[in-house]
Structure formats: structure tokens, C-alpha cells
Design a protein that fits this description.
Blueprint (H helix, E strand, L loop, with lengths): L1 H8 L5 H23 L1 H8 L17 H10 L2 H18 L4 H51 L2 H6 L2 H43 L1 H48 L1 H6 L3 H55 L4 H13 L1 H8 L1 H19 L20 E9 L9 E9 L3 E6 L5 H7 L8 E6 L2 E2 L5 H6 L1 E4 L10 H5 L8 H10 L3 H6 L17 H15 L3 E5 L7 H15 L3 E5 L3 H6 L2 E6 L2 E6 L1 H6 L4 H9 L3
Parallel strand pairs: 3-8, 3-9, 6-7, 7-8
Antiparallel strand pairs: 1-2, 1-4, 4-5, 9-10
Helix pairs in contact: 2-6, 2-8, 3-6, 3-12, 6-8, 6-14, 8-9, 8-12, 8-13, 8-14, 9-11, 9-13, 11-12, 18-20, 20-21
Bound molecules: adenosine-5'-diphosphate (ADP).
Length: about 625
């Protein structure tokens, strides 16, 4: 329930639309009632009943019991108000010849239906406005929040899961908004209006119907709930099938290499078989639902008709036209009651979806500005790593162990070591993607935790192994985060990154949208675009994770040149794989199991026969 109220709190900005929707709903319900109510005088005229002596709705000849009960539940003033309205409506309607009366009633019915549909439309529109507004706001909030979350969150969560929360779960939440406003406002109103009509025609008959109606409605609601449950199961099964499919497609090489085709086929067939069974079950329920519902309604209808028919024929306590009007009204009661029966279920569903979304929104970012964080806009001297240790929050394994070193402005610091040694983790600490578990990093003597996060990151350029390009133009990709940048600067940076020439050859040059059909950009070209991006930002500190992926010789040379230009006149931390980068480094830190085991320049380290560096060098940089 708490989740549900929280979802509802998002409706606040849409108060006006909500109010408009409620107003329209009220008018809709009243006109809906009127459209049914008008059938009584219509039928009465057609049946040539004596209207004037027995005006519809204000029974003088109703049985005594009926009269006394209906009077006892309504206060006198209300009863007389109803009588007055009915009297004047009847006076107006039943004046003139039969044909005139018929025409008047037809016009009124037309107007009632016109109004009802118009307000029904407006009501639905305003409600959709509120619903979609809420969805938009929740989605935006969740998306904005994602940007505040620490890197660790993205490593732990599966991307698909995250995307599904922001797209699918939010949509399920939408259902709950409509559930409330339709079910808690429109349906009760409809029930009140039609119940009012039924009571005004015959209290006794209404009471009788209310005794037998719940029985059939109960069964109908039960079937509805069962169907809902089945469809939820079905969705879960479908996602199992998608998972198998996804695994196979991404792992197709392995499946082929290990000759596991028939095993995978069987796995898939198992899943589709389960789905098949489930869907058949659902088909059975669904197809049984409507005949059962219809038959139950007919049973109820027949009982009411038999009982009411006797009132008409024998007791003559109500007129035939009123009885038919009564039947229309009582059957209009069924759908809203049915809807209300599934209300709780819908709230449960949307709360579950809401929980999944709020779970993300409730994660408080661990990496954020401290109060009174310092503003800086320059890097002048050095970065010190003091007794820095680190483990990821989801495990106790020490990833970095007592790291101590100082990087001076203008130096190239290469981080080398075998895979898993902690190089990437160490470089991730500098822009505070992670905070050290122990120890500190000082930038010009200030603990980076006390520096404004945006200021800190502004000082740094980052080129990662996987080059991330967005589905925008090449120009926008290069000037990412820099706003409108002068054309010549962009070209200058591209030239420095050896990217200018191939960009000019793209279909629309700098305006080519990356990812659009026909735009073929190789791995090496992508890297150069991302290097151009870093050169354009021109930060004093560069963090570089050299790509290990094999490039062809020409690309390799071009990328290498670009990287060298990128590093010049900057303080660079580089997770190094390339010989030339390492040779040029002012200082090489060799990491092993999170510790710095060797520290020096290339030639010094190479001379240590027993050192890890020598071994790594021989392994990796032989050729
Ligand atoms: P390198 O860059 O030297 O290959 P990394 O810094 O990527 O090494 O990883 C160091 C160790 O930390 C590895 O054992 C790796 O499994 C572990 N690791 C990396 N990222 C995470 C994470 N998000 N959660 C838990 N462990 C991680």
C-alpha cells in the first residue's frame, strides 16, 4: 500500500487534468444514467401506457412494502426533491400528442448519448494525460537517477534488467493510475447512478436482484483473476524463452564449437513446450470465460425477469416499460462491479512494478559531493596516492593493497601487470568512479573526496578500451559535453587524432550520424574519434586504457600517433599494452595482485632479470 501511495504522489503536478477528468466522469455517469432512464418513457409511449396517471419514476401504485422501505431510506426533503424533478420532467415529456412525445424523447435520447460519449471521450483524454504524465516523470526521474549511481551499480546489475525496469515496469505502473481513477471514481459513480435508477423504479425488485447478483458476479470476477494470473505466468515464461534465445545467439560460436546444437535445441524445445501448455490452459480459461459469463448473466436475468414479470403481470405494481428500464439499469451494474473485483489485483501488480522502480530510486549515491566541497579549476603540481587500499563492495577480496606513489604534473605513468592485477580499478579511482576503502588520493594536496565532483572530472579526459560513441553526428560525438564548439577546433582535434581524413570520406562528413545505415566505422576509426574527443576537451590529466583489440598495421600506427599527441603536455595515467607507450613512460608501475611490485623506467625494469616486468615484456612485447 505504501508503494501504491508513493506512485500516486506522482499525480500531484497533474491536479488540474485530474480534476477535469473527474468532472467529466461525473457528467458521463449522469448522462449514462439518463440515457438508460429515457428508455422508460420511450417504451411507455410505444406501449401506449397511460403515462399521465402513472408517471415513470414516481410510483403511486407501488406495493405498500416497497413504498415504505424506499421512503424510510431517503430523508423527506430528498424524496420530495426527487418527486419534484420527476414531476416536472414528466410534465414536460408527456405534454402533447403521442408523436410529439416520441419526437421529444428521441431528441433527448440523442442528446444524452451525444453528451455521454463526448464526456466519456474527454474523461479518457484527461485521464490519459495524467497517466502518461506520471509515466514520463517516473521514467525521467529513474533515468536521471541512473546518472548519480556509482559505477559498482552498473557492474552488478544486468543491463537488460535495468532497461526493463525503466521501460516495462513503468508501463505496468501506469495501469495502476488508471485503475484508481477508473475504478475508484467512474465505476462507483456508475454503480450509484444505476442503482439509484433501479431503486427509483422498484426498491423491492432492486433488493431481490442484489441478493442474486453477487453470486454470479463473484464467479465472473474469480475467472477474471485467474486469467490475469495466467497471463503473468505467461509473460515470465516468454522471458525464459527470450533468455535461451539471447544466450544462444550471443554464444553461437561456442555452441557450434562444442557441437551443442541438439542440446540447445532440446533446451529451447523444453521452454516452448512449457509455454505451449501454459497458453493452452489460458485459452481454456479464456474461451470458457465468455460463455460462462453469459450463461450466468442469463440465469440471473431469467430469475429477475420471472420475478419482475410477476410484479408486472400479477401485482401490477410496476409498468412493463419501467421493468425493462430496470433490467437495462441492473445489467449496466455488472461491468463496473466486475472491474472493482479486480481492483486489488491491479493495485498489487502495479505495486510490485513500482517496487522494482523505487528500488533504483532509493539507492543513495555513495559517491557525491561532501557538504562545502571545494571548487577547483586547475591542476598544478601532483597527485599523491597514500596508503590506498580497495575492495569492491560486493566482495571482501582485496583488489588494491597499500598503493603509494606520487605522479607529478606532465608525467606519463604506465600501469602494467597481468590481467586482473588491478590496473583498471586503480585508474578508476582517480576520477572517483570508486572511492578507496582505505587511504586517500590527494590532488595538489587536497583529498579528492573534498573536491566538487564536476570540477574534479572536468580536469580529466578518459579514453576507455571500449570506445563509446553515441548515435549522433561525428561532430557531436567529438564535442560531447562541450556544447557548441568552433568548427576549426573540432577539425584541429580530429587532425591531431588522425581522424580528419576518414571523417571527410564519410557520407556526410562531420555531420554523418554514427550508427546510421551505411555508416561503416572500423574499430581503429572509432578509437580515433574518441581520441579526438579527448584532445578537444584538452584536460590537464588524461586517463587512458589502451585497447588491446587487434588492429591492422596501418590503423595501429595511426592510433598510436594519435595517442602520443594526446599524451603530450599532459599528466597521463595509462593502462599500457603498447611497447612504445611504455618506453616513453616517465614511470612504470608494475601491479601484481593489487600491489605495486616494481616501479621505475623501462630500461631499469627490464634489467631486472627476475622481475615480473621482464617476464611480461617478453610475453607481450616480444615482437
Ligand atoms: P586489470 O585492469 O588489471 O585487468 P581490474 O582492475 O579490471 O584488473 O580487476 C582487478 C580485480 O577486480 C579482478 O580480480 C576483477 O575480477 C575484480 N573486479 C573488477 N571489477 C569488479 C567489480 N565491479 N566487482 C567485483 N570485482 C571486480
Amino acid at each position: 500500500m505504501k508503494t501504491y501511495l508513493r506512485i500516486l504522489s506522482y499525480v500531484k503536478p497533474y491536479k488540474k487534468h485530474l480534476a477535469a477528468s473527474i468532472m467529466c466522469t461525473i457528467i458521463f455517469a449522469l448522462l449514462n444514467g439518463a440515457s438508460i432512464y429515457l428508455t422508460i418513457p420511450l417504451l411507455s409511449t410505444l406501449f401506449q401506457e397511460d403515462q399521465k396517471s402513472k408517471p415513470a419514476g414516481t410510483e403511486q401504485v407501488e406495493s405498500n412494502i416497497d413504498d415504505s422501505i424506499s421512503q424510510s431510506i431517503l430523508p423527506d426533503w430528498a424524496q420530495s426533491a426527487i418527486d419534484n424533478v420527476s414531476d416536472s420532467v414528466n410534465d414536460f415529456l408527456f405534454e402533447g400528442s403521442d408523436n410529439e412525445i416520441l419526437l421529444k424523447i428521441c431528441i433527448l435520447i440523442l442528446l444524452a448519448f451525444l453528451g455521454k460519449n463526448l464526456f466519456g471521450y474527454l474523461q479518457a483524454y484527461f485521464l490519459a494525460y495524467v497517466e502518461q504524465g506520471v509515466i514520463k516523470d517516473i521514467r525521467n526521474q529513474a533515468y536521471n537517477h541512473l546518472h548519480k549511481l556509482p559505477m559498482s551499480f552498473f557492474k552488478g546489475e544486468k543491463t537488460g534488467n535495468l532497461i526493463s525496469r525503466i521501460t516495462n515496469d513503468v508501463t505496468v505502473v501506469q495501469a495502476s493510475v488508471s485503475a484508481v481513477f477508473l475504478n475508484l471514481i467512474r465505476e462507483p459513480l456508475t454503480i450509484i447512478v444505476f442503482l439509484g435508477i433501479a431503486i427509483s423504479i422498484s426498491f423491492k425488485l432492486t433488493l431481490f436482484s442484489l441478493v442474486i447478483l453477487p453470486f454470479s458476479i463473484g464467479i465472473i470476477v474469480w475467472i477474471g483473476l485467474k486469467l490475469r494470473k495466467q497471463s503473468a505466468l505467461l509473460q515470465a515464461k516468454m522471458s525464459d524463452i527470450t533468455t535461451v534465445l539471447h544466450e544462444t545467439i550471443t554464444g553461437v560460436k561456442i555452441v557450434k564449437a562444442f557441437g551443442m546444437e541438439s542440446y540447445e535445441n532440446k533446451k529451447f524445445a523444453d521452454q516452448t513446450k512449457k509455454f505451449f501448455r501454459l497458453i493452452l490452459k489460458m485459452v481454456r480459461i479464456r474461451n470458457a470465460a465468455s460463455p460462462i459469463t453469459e450463461f450466468l448473466s442469463v440465469i440471473v436475468g431469467v430469475i429477475i425477469i420471472y420475478y419482475g414479470g410477476q410484479l408486472v403481470l400479477t401485482e401490477q405494481s410496476i409498468k412493463a416499460s419501467e421493468f425493462l428500464g430496470f433490467l437495462f439499469a441492473i445489467f449496466q451494474l455488472m461491468p463496473p462491479i466486475k472491474e472493482l473485483g479486480t481492483l486489488n489485483n491491479r493495485i498489487q501488480e502495479s505495486s510490485a512494478a513500482g517496487d522494482r522502480i523505487f528500488e533504483i530510486l532509493d539507492i543513495h549515491p555513495s559517491i557525491k559531493d561532501v557538504p562545502n566541497a571545494k571548487s577547483i579549476n586547475d591542476f598544478n603540481d601532483k597527485i599523491e596516492f597514500n596508503k590506498l587500499s580497495f575492495h569492491y563492495s560486493d566482495s571482501d577480496e582485496t583488489i588494491l593493497d597499500d598503493i603509494n606513489f606520487t605522479a607529478y604534473k606532465g608525467q606519463i605513468i604506465a600501469l602494467v601487470g597481468s590481467s586482473g592485477a588491478g590496473k583498471t580499478t586503480l585508474s578508476d579511482m582517480i576520477p572517483r568512479f570508486y572511492d578507496p576503502t582505505e587511504g586517500e588520493i590527494l590532488l595538489d594536496g587536497i583529498n579528492i573526496k573534498n573536491i566538487k565532483l564536476t570540477d574534479l572530472r572536468k580536469l580529466m579526459g578518459i579514453v576507455t578500451q571500449e570506445t563509446v560513441l553515441f548515435n549522433e553526428s561525428v561532430r557531436q560525438n567529438i564535442a560531447y559535453g562541450l556544447g557548441d564548439f568552433p568548427e576549426e577546433k573540432i577539425i584541429e582535434a580530429s587532425k591531431a587524432a588522425n581522424a580528419h581524413n576518414f571523417i571527410l570520406e564519410l557520407p556526410n562528413g562531420y555531420d554523418t550520424v554514427i550508427g546510421e545505415k551505411g555508416t561503416k566505422i572500423s574499430g581503429g576509426q572509432r578509437q580515433r574519434i574518441s581520441i579526438a574527443r579527448a584532445i578537444l576537451k584538452n584536460p590537464p590529466i588524461m586517463i587512458l586504457d589502451e585497447a588491446t583489440s587487434a588492429l591492422d598495421n596501418e590503423s595501429e600506427v595511426l592510433v598510436q600517433e594519435a595517442i602520443e599527441r594526446l599524451m603530450s603536455d599532459r599528466t597521463t595515467f595509462v593502462v599500457a599494452h603498447r611497447l612504445s607507450t611504455i618506453r616513453n613512460a616517465d614511470r612504470i608501475l608494475v601491479l601484481e595482485k593489487g600491489k605495486i611490485v616494481q616501479d621505475g623506467k623501462h630500461d631499469e625494469l627490464l634489467n631486472d632479470d627476475k622481475g615480473i616486468y621482464r617476464r611480461l615484456y617478453e610475453l607481450q612485447f616480444r615482437d
